[in-house]
Each structure stands twice: as structure tokens, then as C-alpha cells.
Amino acid sequence: MDKLPTIRIGLVSISDRASSGVYLDEGLPALRSWLERAVSNPVEFVERLIPDEQAVIEDSLRALADQEGCALILTTGGTGPAPRDVTPEATLAVADRVMPGFGEQMRQVSLYYVPTAILSRQVGVIRGTSLILNLPGRPKAIQETLEGVKNAEGQVVVHGIFASVPYCIELMGGPYIETRAEVITAFRPKKK
């Protein structure tokens, strides 16, 4: 491939307190930083910092997918069992199709680190030509979920979800995404 296409990626941090200025949001910087290290393509980020309100989350996801044309939308926060954690409900409400493997794999990665990963309700869905994934709220957990678990030698023990994201977006008719192998290797089946 000569020149890699520019990718539009939506980033949504969902937090009542951060969106009202009670504390500094860490989700958006963590997502942006990891993607800048992992993705070789030029990236245009479209960011939102919003409260834990289902209607606001739904509106934001619709706008990023339908008006902003983001091939990938990553959310952080609001996926636990607390009453205000409504990110999965909002994500499912705007979905055309559910991609259950993403949520399953995120929990598998997180369970390697903490037993409370079973409390996470993260989901992955497709809306139109956008892949929407709910990530954890903590920056360390965001990186672990995206990259996976590596042993002391740096070999992957449990695959992170981002290894499958470029091929998924390609299958959906989206742009070709190339990753930097020192961060994560995008998996694509070998051509016959």
C-alpha cells in the first residue's frame, strides 16, 4: 500500500464528574495516546466528554457514526453495575448488529489482572459502517484491553481486542488500518 488513508476515530469519555469539571478526564488522553502509538495511518480524532446520561450517549454515538463518519468509535466509562452505568444500554440502542466477541475478549483480558472484570458489561456493535467498542474507564485497563496480555519476553499470552479491529473494519467496507507491531499486530488471514 502506497499511502495509508486517514482514519476518523471517535473517542467518547462518559463520566458525570469529569464532564462537570469535578476532576480531570483521563479517558480521552489515554485513548488518544494509545492510538497514536499503535496506528500507522494518519488519524483524525473526534472527541466527546459527556455525562452518564443514556440519551446523551446515544446522540453522541449516532452523531459520530452518521454525521462524523468515524470508522471506529471507542467509549470509556460507564460499563459497570452501578445505576448510572448505562453505556452498554446506549450502545446497544444505536446498534445495527452486535459483535459479542469483543465484550467477551475484553473481559478475558481484564480477568487476567482483576477478578472484578466479571462485573464489566462492555459491548461491541456495528452501526452502519462504524465499529463501536465500550472500553474500561481506567487508563491502565484501556491499554491492557487493547493490547492484551504479554509475558516477560513480550509474547502475547491473551490477545487484545485491537488485534482484530483493523480486519473487522476492512470486512465492513471501511478503510485499511495498519498497526505498529511493537505495540500491537493487526491480524489478517493469509491470502490463499
Automatic annotation (TrEMBL):
Catalytic activity: molybdopterin + ATP + H(+) = adenylyl-molybdopterin + diphosphate
EC number: 2.7.7.75
MoaB/Mog domain: residues covered: 10-156
InterPro entries (alphabetical): MoaB/Mog-like_dom_sf, MoaB/Mog_dom, MoCF_biosynth_CS, MPT_Adenylyltrnsfr/MoaC-Rel
Gene Ontology MF terms: ATP binding; molybdopterin adenylyltransferase activity
Pathway(s): Cofactor biosynthesis; molybdopterin biosynthesis
Role of this protein: Catalyzes the adenylation of molybdopterin as part of the biosynthesis of the molybdenum-cofactor.
PANTHER family from the UniProt entry: MOLYBDENUM COFACTOR BIOSYNTHESIS, MOLYBDOPTERIN MOLYBDOTRANSFERASE
Highest taxon in the source lineage: Bacteria
Residues annotated as signal peptide: none
Species the sequence originates in: Brachymonas denitrificans DSM 15123
Family: Belongs to the MoaB/Mog family.
Pfam (any one): MoCF_biosynth
Coiled coil: none
GO terms (BP aspect): Mo-molybdopterin cofactor biosynthetic process
Keywords: ATP-binding, Molybdenum cofactor biosynthesis, Nucleotide-binding, Nucleotidyltransferase, Transferase
Protein name: Molybdopterin adenylyltransferase
